[in-house]
Design a protein that fits this description.
Layout: H1 3-16, H2 20-32, H3 39-51, H4 55-67, H5 74-86, H6 90-102, H7 109-121, H8 125-137, H9 144-155
Length: 157
């Protein structure tokens, strides 16, 4: 097994254990030891931040990926969007969703749900409905989470 795979597994274990700071230490250690940082290692660290309510750190990690020329995956975008949504940063979440579209990343149910949830958290029901409409036009499957994310902001309007 490569060092990258072993380190990614360790970061994932930190994420699952709610140890976002340990996940970040492992990511930094990988960089110091010149172990290849890939989207999987960043995904695990961003997920750890998302699950711990550390949206700012997730946002920073996403930015570091670009600096390190690591291409974000759909999962990377969605986890960062979700972290921003949980932190009440709907504008950053929508910005990331647009970046996802511009980067040509395939839009899926999870991405739309994350962006609509961010709009819901920000009380932006019009944007949530716009996203829902785009989702329907693109024939992206929706689920119960999608419907909740699209409809619940309208309750407060």
């Amino acid at each position: 097994l490569s060092n990258t795979i072993i380190c990614c597994a360790a970061i994932s274990a930190c994420e699952k254990g709610g140890e976002w700071e340990s996940a970040l230490r492992m990511l930094r250690k990988m960089a110091e030891d010149k172990v290849e940082l890939d989207s999987i290692s960043f995904n695990a660290a961003i997920s750890a931040c998302e699950n711990s309510g550390e949206w700012e750190t997730a946002w920073q990690l996403f930015s570091v990926m670009a600096q390190d020329a690591v291409v974000p995956s759909s999962f990377t975008f969605c986890a960062t969007i979700s972290a921003c949504a949980q932190g009440g940063e709907w504008e950053k979440a929508v910005h990331l969703f647009r970046s996802m579209v511009q980067a040509g990343v395939e839009l899926d149910t999870i991405g739309f749900n994350a962006a609509m949830s961010a709009c819901r958290a920000g009380g932006k029901w019009e944007r949530a409905l716009q996203l829902f409409s785009i989702m329907a036009q693109g024939k992206v499957a929706c689920n119960a989470t999608t419907l909740t994310a699209a409809i619940s902001p309208c309750e407060k309007a």
